[in-house]
Description:
- The protein is mainly α.
- It contains 5 helices and 2 strands; from the N terminus they run H-E-H-H-H-H-E.
- The protein has helices spanning 3-28, 33-45, 53-58, 70-78, 81-95, and strands at residues 30-32, 101-103.
Amino acid sequence: MDNKRISEIVDEEMIKQDANRYRDMREILTIPKSIADEFDQIYEDTEEYQKNVAQMFSSMQPYFVLESYPEILHWLEDDVKNTNVVLAYLAGKALGVDLVKVGEG
């Protein structure tokens, strides 16, 4: 086997390992479908210039009234990690990639 073929095999194996790591990360980060649907609607209703997710959360500007979404409010209060999951979910939407798996519920 020549060095070029060995290099190709190593590259293919590294790509597979990266894909498996990404898949494993997605299995860890999940958001209930009902919550994702509500955030999708909020995101779609947001003006284009306001869709900078990091700015939206860091500035604490009220882009939407959380009390108007009792299911979201309850889910966010249920576990402190859920806020980070939502940030990753919305960041993925803004970037056009799936960072968080949408689960049942």
